[in-house]
Design a protein that fits this description.
This protein is of the alpha/beta class and 429 residues long. It folds into three domains: 78 residues, Udp-n-acetylmuramoylalanyl-d-glutamate--2,6- Diaminopimelate Ligase, Chain: A, domain 1 (3-Layer(aba) Sandwich); 194 residues, 3-Layer(aba) Sandwich (UDP-N-acetylmuramoyl-L-alanine:D-glutamate ligase), CATH 3.40.1190; 127 residues, Protein-Tyrosine Phosphatase, Chain A (Alpha-Beta Complex), CATH 3.90.190.20. Helices cover 35% and strands 21% of the residues. The protein is built from 15 helices and 22 strands. Strands 9-10-8-11-12-13-14-15-16 form a nine-stranded mixed β-sheet, with helices on both faces. The protein has a six-stranded mixed β-sheet with strand order 17-18-22-19-20-21, sandwiched between helices. Helix 12 links the parallel strand 19 and strand 20. It starts with a strand and ends with a helix. GO terms for molecular function: ATP binding; UDP-N-acetylmuramoyl-tripeptide-D-alanyl-D-alanine ligase activity. It comes from Hippea maritima (strain ATCC 700847 / DSM 10411 / MH2).
Length: 429
Amino acid sequence: MEFGLDEIIAVLKPKSISLDRDYTIKGFSIDSRAIKEGEVFVGIKGERFDGTDFAPEAVKKSKTFAIVEKKVDCPHIIVNNALGALKRLATYKLKKSGAISVAIVGSVGKTTTKELVADFLSCRYSVCRSLENENNIIGVCKTLLRVEDEDFCVVEVGINNPGEMEEIAAFFEPDNVLFLNVTSTHIGNFENIDAIFKEKSKIINKSSRLVYNADDEILKEAFEGKENSFGFCFFGDCEFRAENNNNVKVEDITLKKPFGLNPYTVLSGFVAAFVFGGFKDETCFNDKLKAFKPVGYRMRPEILEDKLFILDCYNANVNSMMHAIDELAKLKGRKLAILGDMLELGSFSERFHRDVGLYLNGKDIDLLAVGGDAFFIFDAFNGKKYYCKTKPEAVELLKDKLTDYDIFLLKASRGMRFEDIFTRLKGSQ
């Protein structure tokens, strides 16, 4: 998709223009290292950098110009706010593309669900999707700016703080919203869970079609019976009631759930394709499930010395911890759950870590707790257990315990970088 210079000027209404010729624009970039010829550089400001400083280097590569907030030594246009310009361009490109937009929101499971929804929709349509977990304000902009002539644009939308979803909703008004859940994730930055829900729900506009998890009490109370709202559930009453018996049975089809994939992810993927895409294809959906590989360190299997290590190190909260424990419990063999800190829980941290320890009781799984607040998991668990304050201590302990177990689960928040434990252990063999 190409843009004329007049288009860009009409969208941005710049303060001043310092260009030496007309341009045909092929796209936009905020990364001077990865910019391609024909793309326009947008010099946004970060916490540790000012994109304006990289404008001359970027323009030399792109052979176009830069959108900046002050004069630079290369062809440029000046705007009041470069991030604001990026948002306006993102809005404009999505509208110009004509793609049907889908926003994936919730506390847990957004990235994996986004991938599966995009996979299911691709059974019939062309799809643009967010890359990995680019789900913040800039990430949403980058996704919208990558849309070309696809039928659908599936956008993961995440927040950490109050006000962020409101800011995203000001430039991205999705045609469809898939609302997964509301949990304690990032509760340390909010007053309570209700405040998290209110902020996340700001992405829903008056014309959005909504698919929501009706087994989530907060979502059910808010959306049940509302126009253009469709609930999915395994319990109670909703528009799309399913059965979960290893496989997910919904409507008249059976979806074969791979190990590690949350049944709610499978169900929400089906309902999104059916409601937003208007179709169901049991054969294609199961082909997609069979080939499905979660992004990053999400229930990722690794083999070391004939032992199975399950790396679920991308993020963690109470709900995802419990899901990982449930998946581990299904496997046969001697099992050790290596669990670390769940971050950004504020004053709720001790309580939620203890909840995980209590949940682990009676599961025929041993525990190695690693970290600071992970001690509360250790303290609440009454089975065979070990505790290490640091990851290096955990590695040394695991060297001695490797032969005692067949399966190891590593689970903690991203900030713990729990994959380091596996990497160091692997390097020592």
